[in-house]
Amino acid sequence: MLTTLARFVRDSDSRLLKIVRGVALPVLRLVKTVLLWIEEMVLNIRTSVPERSVPAKSDGLLFADNREYASINFWHTRRMLRVVEPGPDDVVFDLGAGAGRMVCVAARLDIRKCIGVEISEKYCDRARQNARRLRGRKAPIEIVCEDATRTDLSAGTIFYMFNPFGRDTLAAVVENLQRSLRVHPRRVRIIYVNPVHDELLHACSWLIKFDEFHALTGWRVSFWRNRAEEGVQ
Q1: Residue 9 to residue 5: CA distance in whole angstroms
Q2: Which domain holds residue 102?
Q3: Model confidence over 117-158: pLDDT tens digits?
């Protein structure tokens, strides 16, 4: 009797949970869509794309491991920028910029410049349109269509990545950044969203992870800086 009752309660709880999820998830998705639409209307940009956008195919890539385009909501984008504390002398790079959401948000801050690096011409065109349309822009925006492993990173002080490419490309990008620090010593910070290859940054003796949080959407975000304020130790 008790076993039957326990099974009934367990099955009832399971059915109730399924019902709640079935109602709550569509409502949450609708709220998310509405909030994104309001943000983009206010900023006069269009950065929302299908959740699973096919990665670009290009002969210009050093490694064919670029990821599907993804972006995080505006609230978390601003929260990430607050962690790295951008100032008037900072140049923000978005490596794998897509439609340009990060550079548009950052360009409304009191910083020197924003640079979006994107391999897809289609996304570069859209990011440039958004840069032109953006309301409240304080900093200039430049969109560069090329492989991030070959981009001149020497001006950058803040680097943002939303898991834009695989292990081989990330390793080459990190080496590219380290070379730029040897030529132009400076303080840099890195924002890495969905850091599936965090071990590569952990293996760099010149980098320190100084913060981390989990977004409400489930993404983990790690924050890194170089050890010496002036460059590489």
Answers
A1: 6
A2: 74-226
A3: 999 899 999 999 999 999 999 999 999 999 999 999 999 999
